[in-house]
Design a protein that fits this description.
Number of strands: 22
Distance between the termini: 27 Å
Radius of gyration: 20 Å
Number of helices: 10
Oligomer: single chain
Structural class: alpha/beta
Strand content: 25-35%
Length: 383
């Protein structure tokens, strides 16, 4: 058995920040936290006394990075995105599709299924199917001509891959409630609501039928009015619902981020990047699915002005929450690690620094720059 101890200025657990402890790792698992006096005499100690240790971050809504996209449907794309994520502190992710011809979506699913079995990079937890079952008015960066009605045969074909974990629908689509009940009950899929014009009643009907999250809350949905709270209002007021959040300060303003955190239970906020292929690259012109977009000053927009995903990372979002919004550090970190793990019933294995879980963690400096990324008790990235 391989045993090591890691010392850092701060170690972030699910509930606290430990400053005088050593993190024990045995093979691929965390083995607990101990004081210096309780360290085994023969154990190897790795000293990162000037740095902080966080759990590996989990991105459940990300399209691409460094010139690659999930919809490229190639092993090279998946490998390069995964490697970039490791360098940014994200140790697990869900490759995410866009609205596109069905054949393109099926091809991306087949590719992810193959790559998942052979992955030697950031963990592939499954896929998030974002589109084509959305609404035209709030399509955002999704091409209208490929938006489709809900279809059991199509969804069954996607689900048969065994790799799909979540799928988006707009609650105002015909038979949305019945489909939600079927997908959550029979297929064991997580149903997310977004890219939608749904009113409050339509949204709540789907939440009552089993949908459990709103997609990039505030964005690409009918906004809240005091006489018509709509999907946004339902997402904010329901304590049983997760709320995705792109906390880059561009998609959602800082006061609106604070409002969301004041409304939601602290374990129901999910940081997501919604990152696209321009992430990690210079400004320029790139593609998101079948649509071109321009990235200027790190902001991605279609030619019509709509935002086209982000160029952020989860760690940058954690930093923004702590430094600019005033969110408690443990809550900010959990929103990018433990909370997504809980949503997908993976928190027994990953999502926090806790004895018995896989030893996925990151070592960062005071400026939130990743120095090392560890996965399964092994260093997989070092700056």
């Amino acid at each position: 058995m391989n045993k090591i101890a890691v010392k850092a200025a701060k170690i972030f657990t699910e509930t606290s920040i430990e400053c005088e402890k050593y993190l024990l790792i045995e093979d691929d698992k965390f083995a607990g936290l101990v004081a210096k006096d309780n360290l085994p005499s023969d154990i190897t100690v790795k000293d990162f006394s000037n740095f902080h240790i966080l759990p590996g971050l989990i991105d459940t809504h990300i399209h691409g990075a460094v010139g690659y996209d999930t919809m490229d449907s190639t092993p090279e794309a998946v490998q390069n995105i995964g490697d970039y994520l490791l360098s940014q502190g994200t140790t697990a992710w869900m490759p995410t599709t866009v609205t596109a011809p069905l054949e393109d979506i099926y091809n991306s699913i087949t590719n992810i299924r193959t790559c998942r079995e052979k992955s030697n990079s950031a963990r592939i937890l499954g896929m998030f199917i974002e589109g084509p079952y959305i609404t035209a008015k709030h399509r955002g960066a999704h091409p209208e001509k490929y938006i489709r009605a809900l279809n059991k045969d199509e969804i069954t074909a996607m689900h048969s891959s065994g790799v799909i974990k979540s799928l988006i629908i707009a609650p105002e689509k015909e038979n949305a409630v019945e489909f939600t009940d079927w997908m959550t009950g029979k297929l064991n899929l997580k149903v997310s609501l977004g890219h939608s014009s749904a009113d409050y009643a339509e949204a709540c009907a789907c939440f009552d039928a089993g949908a459990d999250a709103s997609v990039h809350t505030y964005c690409a949905m009918e906004q809240m009015h005091h006489r018509s709270p709509n999907l946004l209002g339902a997402s904010l007021i329901r304590d049983d619902v997760y709320a995705e959040l792109i906390a880059d300060g561009i998609h959602v303003s800082l006061p609106a981020i604070k409002i969301l955190f004041n409304c939601k239970p602290k374990d129901k906020v999910l940081l997501v990047s919604d990152a696209i292929r321009g992430t990690g690259l210079q400004d320029g012109r790139y593609m998101l699915g079948t649509l071109p977009f321009n990235m200027k000053n790190g902001i991605a927009r279609l030619d019509d002005g709509n935002l086209a995903g982000s160029s952020t990372t989860l760690l940058k979002e954690v930093a923004l929450l702590i430094e600019k919004v005033g969110i408690k550090p443990v809550d900010a970190v959990n929103a990018a690690s433990l909370n997504p793990a809980k949503r997908f019933n993976l928190d027994k294995y990953i999502g926090s620094i806790k004895k018995g879980k896989y030893a996925d963690f990151i070592i960062i400096d005071e400026n939130y720059t990743v120095q090392q990324t560890w996965q399964n008790g092994q260093c997989v990235f070092s700056r």
